[in-house]
Please model this.
Amino acid sequence: MSNNQPNIDQELLFMDIFRKHEGRLYALALKLTKSAPHAQDIIQEVFLKLWEQREDIRQIRNMEAWLYRITENKVIDFLRKAAADDRLREAIWNNLPQNSNATETVVIAHEYEHILQKAISLLPPQRKLIYCLNREAGMNYQEIASELHISRHTVKNQLSTALQTIRSFVSKTTGPLTIFLLNFF
Model:
């Protein structure tokens, strides 16, 4: 059976999974992105990925865990993109609820972003370039290696060192700031 010709069983199973999980996944994406349109886009991408895997759908042992993992990954991708895109980042900030906790969160996030940008600016030029190509332009190790005419291993080492340096700088600068924020960058 071709991927282009789904059978009725695949379609029914997909629709059943969609109906069962879409609401909770949307709520999660909305909570993390604070944006209904972006949450909808993320959930659409999640279910598109599931549709692309429809021939292997019965082999996914824990569908809920699989869908949550894909949703988390898509949200992380979105947040990384938002960190690199000034207009998107500003739209997210403007969309946050306007209560005292939200205001504090925004202030902390802005401070964290400033500290993160300072840490990135202190990297040596090539390491900074490799970091930006990976984290902001979304290029993988091989693409960066080809672009810069260096080995994939060098890219991997430079990116690893950059991440360690950034984490160390942020940790020293912020003290006990939530470490989970470091996982987004």
User: Anything to note?
Assistant: The chain has two domains: 8-84, 100-184. The helical segments are 8-33, 36-52, 63-84, 86-95, 100-121, 125-135, 141-148, 152-174. Residues 8-84 form a domain with the Rna Polymerase Sigma Factor; Chain: A fold (CATH 1.10.1740.10).
